């Protein structure tokens, strides 16, 4: 369909629109004409060809969005970008990053290395001993607010500009810097301790003199390292030897690619065949390895042994590699180190941690700039009204310093303390136990999220597969009827004498079948329907044979093979209690475990044979002739086996229904039943078989070996030979396996969707698996269509596929990492715009770097806040790139949890974390920030009124302790108690997640709300100052006493006005502050006349001024609540 979509070069204003019909041009011609493609827009429908007003014209182009860089850009923040660029440039010059090169590594001889390679140390720290102080100071003073206070404080050293005491400016600034440095130092020490713990892990290193213990950080390129079972691989290595007789081992890669399936790795044949361990030093061999790369799924290299005659050359692939941060799952392995430290795949795929700044902090930074502008304008007005007489320039600076309280330094102190309080509340919440706040600077981000990017394996799912359904076409078995299958299998293998007959009838290529004991007699012709018992036996046997699973028995075998090997031990003892299954797919393990539960047990497997144990205890041997592994292209795996007792050859195959439908014989039930199982959230596999004669197999083997030796188009020729067998196969059964979801994943995803959060699933898993989980977790609702983005490899294909996708409406998108990369290379802006319109997006086969890239794209193109959640080492880059990173402590270790800003124990906790704590943190910080600004603006208004009345003199109204006390002991506790306020009860916030949508609009802290607070400050400041001036009698000291007391009372009443839910600590804070002020009056005789403030006149004057400044605001609030209540108050009532 996409092939027939016209591609239009459009020109604005042109009435006629020429178009090309792609039926005339092949995809290759599109690829060859990039100039044409630049002009071709992505059309939505045919109507767009006739209609110039197509929505495409309104599509904002990335190139058109680039702003002109002029003086305005420089002043509005361009200076910061320029400074940052200069710093980065200097840093790069200092570092002189070395070019990565291919290398030759001699086994056990690090000293022969041609170059110096990086140290094998993990380093997650932001600073070192020398950069800590400059680094922290830069991070603080890049904020306009802090830089402003530094300049104001420094100005007090100039005698002409000095307004008050030095401590009134330097003490608050010093306090803020001290708190920040202590917090950063604590974080750095924690990071250092975590790194030290990892770098100090001990490993056995093989030397000429034997084994020696070496720290992980001291491992070098060329070292021979021994890694035990369940131990972390410390550096990227080539696999040389193992304690397993088969010459292979399994590793767990969940910390690297997020997949908990175990990967099979093969030792280099030349080194594994050496008689003893010490012989590794008696041979003269080296490994040639390609330069370090990002791709964790590929590797190219060669192994060469020079002392042989002739020389031995062995090609190395990804199957011979042991990447750092993976875990050895079976046996003990020896490898030669090829990459260390920052050249390892895991470090190359991890982005360096960055300082995250919350959106609220950026908004407050903008508001402080606006306040500074107002302060400068006010100072110029004051000097202008004076008539610019005398040293007016000096007076202008004095006024700027005088009005400096318009931007309160306590803003940063209060907000930082508030953030710490929110973090403490989150960690103490009993409803989300085990939650840890690792970054205390961004809790408000939890209340502003629009995009949630989640991992699949271990985050949405438990990665525990359970066999749920077996369908034979006419009969279906579920979990409650598995005992029937068990009894059928038991009868099939009841008598050893009947086994030969049963096997013969199972795999014979001749039509005749003999009646079996304990089974209904069958007709001679194979076309006639066989009995249920026979079909169950066939199906279970096929499932037990067609897989890549290896049973492993606990043993104490050593690397040099001196003790009994695992397999030898397994031949003698097939006890169920110490057997575990290992495979590259958890689906296969679930199937083999199920066959064990119904009586047919896989007890042993090596590269050439496998053995099954029947319910009667008999062991049957099958020889493996060929294996065709599963690939994402073929979507199926096959195996050809020969039965030992009869010599019969059978080709078994299982795979996805889309791949198998055309391979199996005609049937009328497969498609329907696959759909039914998929709707239940089950992962389906179709199982089929084909009996082969000796001649058929010999012919196939010859053609297959010939195809494998061909130099050109080897993969195509091999697949063509295999496909020649895949015809008219006998359909045996359909299996359904469930990947269990984490607790309450479905209601949590529904809650987040209702809250207006768009959820993207980024996973390293296969496309089919990801799609299945997206459906079963209700990430994609049942009524929604799914658009699977076809695999594209060039610009033309991407163009056509995007056109096809653009025509779809309200459908979820499923795309693979390779196709995504092509789309982003040529059509980044268009792709992101289309994807953002989807209700859900699933990206499968994503590398860790791609996950981080998607986060960056969303941040860049949408300007919305993003959150990433994951549980594996492969999610670290994504978590660090997002505005807010959440890690889950799970089976995949703590790497994601330690790198995240917030750590939770279960996915379902994210609902409460965002709806309750995110809401409260944002609302409280917005109220706190604006109130602290109001506190500064009101006193600056009073100063402006005072100066204008007293002939525009640049003399401070309040001096010394009055100014310090005003922003600390007199008003700090009530203002800070706003961090306990809440507009909606937690239960209500979770019941109505739609309330969260309002938060993302940022209405709690905007220029509108800020302007309202400015007007309130001007009104109250004017009333307080004019009221005091009107009512004071003879001495100036009375003005100070009346206005300051009224100011303190007004602030306390304003805090009470803003509180929506009272807490006993709030009441205590109000009375404590009032008590502190009354008590301090006795010591403030320097500023107040104690005789006057005890008179009734003082009391009534203060009361009148306070009532006039606050009463109108109380009345306005009451009327607003009555006639235009906010949405949350309607719910509360």
From TrEMBL:
Signal peptide (residue range): none
Positions with biased composition (Low complexity): 495-526
Keyword Transport: yes
Residues engaged in binding Mg(2+): 455, 457, 871, 875
Domain P-type ATPase C-terminal stretches: 898-1125
Originating organism: Salvelinus namaycush (Lake trout)
Designated gene of the protein: LOC120022542
Keyword hit for Nucleotide-binding: yes
Name of the molecule in the record: Phospholipid-transporting ATPase
Subcellular location, principal: Golgi
Family: Belongs to the cation transport ATPase (P-type) (TC 3.A.3) family. Type IV subfamily.
């Amino acid at each position: 369909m996409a092939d027939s979509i016209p591609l239009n070069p459009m020109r604005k204003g042109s009435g006629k629109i020429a178009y090309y019909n792609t039926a005339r041009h092949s995809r290759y011609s599109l690829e060859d004409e990039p100039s044409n493609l630049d002009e071709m827009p992505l059309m939505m429908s045919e109507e767009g060809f006739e209609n110039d007003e197509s929505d495409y014209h309104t599509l904002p182009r990335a190139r058109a969005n680039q702003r002109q860089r002029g003086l305005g850009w420089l002043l509005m923040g361009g200076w910061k970008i320029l400074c940052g660029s200069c710093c980065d440039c200097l840093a790069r010059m200092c570092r002189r990053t070395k070019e990565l090169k291919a290398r030759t590594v001699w086994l056990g001889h690090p000293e022969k290395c041609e170059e110096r390679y990086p140290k094998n140390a993990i380093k997650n720290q932001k600073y070192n001993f020398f950069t800590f102080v400059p680094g922290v100071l830069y991070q603080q003073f890049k904020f306009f607010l802090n830089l402003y206070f530094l300049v104001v404080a420094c100005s007090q050293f100039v005698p002409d500009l000095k307004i008050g005491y030095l401590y009134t400016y330097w003490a608050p600034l010093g306090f803020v810097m001290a708190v920040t440095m202590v917090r950063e130092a604590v974080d750095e020490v924690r990071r250092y301790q975590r790194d030290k713990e990892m770098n100090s892990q001990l490993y056995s290193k093989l030397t000429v003199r034997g084994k020696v213990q070496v720290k992980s950080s001291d491992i070098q390129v060329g070292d021979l390292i021994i890694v035990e079972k369940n131990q972390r691989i410390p550096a990227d290595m080539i696999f040389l030897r193992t304690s397993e007789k088969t010459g292979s081992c399994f590793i767990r890669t969940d910390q690297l690619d997020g997949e908990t399936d175990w990967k099979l790795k093969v030792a280099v044949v030349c080194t594994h065949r050496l008689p003893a361990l010490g012989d590794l030093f008696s041979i003269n061999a080296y490994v040639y390895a390609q330069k370090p790369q990002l791709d964790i799924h590929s590797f190219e290299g060669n192994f060469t042994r020079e002392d042989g005659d002739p020389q031995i050359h062995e090609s190395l692939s990804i199957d011979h590699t042991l990447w750092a941060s993976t875990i050895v799952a079976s046996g003990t392995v020896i490898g030669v180190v090829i990459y260390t430290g920052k050249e390892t795949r895991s470090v190359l795929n991890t982005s360096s941690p960055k300082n995250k700044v919350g959106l609220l902090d950026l908004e407050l930074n903008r508001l402080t700039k606006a306040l500074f502008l107002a302060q400068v304008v006010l100072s110029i007005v004051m000097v202008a009204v004076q008539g610019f007489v005398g040293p007016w320039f000096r007076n202008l600076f004095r006024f700027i310093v005088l009005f400096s309280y318009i931007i309160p330094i306590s803003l940063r102190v209060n907000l930082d303390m508030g953030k710490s309080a929110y973090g403490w509340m989150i960690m103490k919440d009993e409803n989300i136990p085990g939650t840890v706040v690792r970054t205390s600077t961004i809790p408000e981000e939890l209340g502003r999220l629009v995009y949630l990017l989640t991992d699949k394996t271990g985050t949405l799912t438990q990665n525990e597969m359970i066999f749920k359904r077996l369908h034979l076409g006419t009969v279906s078995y579920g979990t409650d009827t598995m005992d029937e299958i068990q009894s059928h299998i038991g009868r099939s293998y009841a008598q050893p004498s009947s086994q030969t007959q049963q096997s013969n009838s199972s795999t014979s290529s001749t039509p005749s079948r003999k009646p079996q004991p304990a089974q209904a007699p069958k007709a001679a012709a194979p076309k006639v329907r066989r009995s249920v018992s026979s079909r169950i036996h066939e199906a279970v046997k096929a499932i037990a044979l067609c897989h890549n699973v290896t049973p492993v028995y606990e043993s104490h075998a050593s690397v040099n093979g001196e003790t009994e090997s695992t397999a030898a031990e397994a031949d003698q003892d097939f006890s169920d209690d110490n057997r575990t299954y290992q495979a590259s797919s958890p689906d296969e393990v679930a199937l083999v475990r199920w066959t064990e539960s119904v009586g047919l047990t896989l007890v042993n497997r090596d590269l050439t044979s496998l053995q099954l144990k029947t319910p009667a205890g008999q062991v049957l041997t099958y020889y493996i002739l060929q294996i065709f592994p599963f690939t994402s292209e073929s979507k199926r795996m096959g195996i050809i086996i020969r039965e030992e007792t009869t010599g019969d050859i059978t080709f078994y195959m299982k795979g996805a229904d889309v791949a198998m439908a055309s391979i199996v014989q005609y049937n009328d039930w497969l498609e329907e039943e696959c759909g039914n199982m998929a709707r239940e959230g089950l992962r389906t596999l179709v199982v089929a078989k084909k009996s082969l004669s000796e001649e058929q197999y010999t012919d196939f083997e010859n053609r297959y070996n010939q195809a494998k030796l061909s130099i050109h188009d080897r993969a195509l020729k091999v697949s063509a030979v295999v496909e020649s067998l895949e015809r008219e196969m006998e359909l045996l059964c359909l299996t359904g396996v469930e990947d269990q979801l984490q607790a309450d994943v479905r209601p949590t995803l529904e809650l987040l969707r209702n809250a207006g959060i768009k959820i993207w699933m980024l996973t390293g898993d296969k496309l089919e698996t990801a799609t299945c989980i997206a459906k079963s977790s209700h990430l994609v609702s049942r009524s929604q269509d799914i658009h699977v983005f076809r695999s594209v490899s060039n610009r033309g294909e991407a163009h056509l596929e995007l056109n096809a996708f653009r025509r779809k409406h309200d459908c979820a998108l499923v795309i693979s990492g390779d196709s995504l990369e092509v789309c982003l290379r040529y059509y980044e802006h268009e792709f992101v715009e289309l994807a953002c319109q989807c209700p859900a997006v699933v990206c499968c086969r994503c590398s860790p770097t791609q996950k981080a890239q998607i986060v960056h794209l969303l941040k860049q193109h949408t300007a919305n806040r993003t959150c990433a959640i994951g549980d594996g080492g492969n999610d670290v880059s994504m978590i660090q790139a997002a505005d807010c990173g959440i890690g889950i402590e799970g089976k995949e270790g703590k790497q994601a949890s330690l790198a995240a800003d917030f750590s939770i124990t279960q996915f379902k906790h994210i609902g409460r974390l965002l709806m309750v704590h995110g809401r409260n943190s944002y609302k409280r910080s917005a109220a706190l920030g604006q109130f602290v600004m109001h506190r500064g603006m009101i006193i600056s208004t009073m100063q402006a009124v005072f100066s204008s009345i007293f002939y525009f003199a640049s003399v401070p109204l309040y001096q010394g302790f009055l100014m310090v006390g005003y922003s600390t002991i007199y008003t700090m506790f009530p203002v800070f108690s706003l961090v306990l306020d809440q507009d909606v009860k937690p239960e209500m916030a979770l019941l109505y997640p739609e309330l969260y949508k309002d938060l993302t609009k940022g209405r709690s802290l905007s220029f509108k709300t800020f302007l309202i607070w400015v007007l309130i400050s001007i009104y109250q400041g004017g009333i307080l100052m004019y009221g005091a001036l009107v009512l004071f009698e003879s001495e100036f000291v009375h003005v100070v006493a009346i206005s300051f007391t009224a100011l303190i009372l007004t602030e306390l009443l304003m805090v009470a006005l803003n509180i929506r839910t009272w807490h006993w600590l709030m009441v205590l804070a109000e009375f404590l502050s009032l008590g502190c002020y009354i008590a301090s009056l006795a010591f403030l005789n320097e500023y107040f006349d104690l005789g006057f403030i005890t008179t009734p006149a003082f009391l009534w004057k203060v009361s009148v001024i306070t009532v006039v400044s606050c009463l109108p605001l109380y009345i306005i609030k009451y009327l607003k609540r009555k006639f235009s209540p906010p949405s949350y108050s309607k719910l509360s009532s």
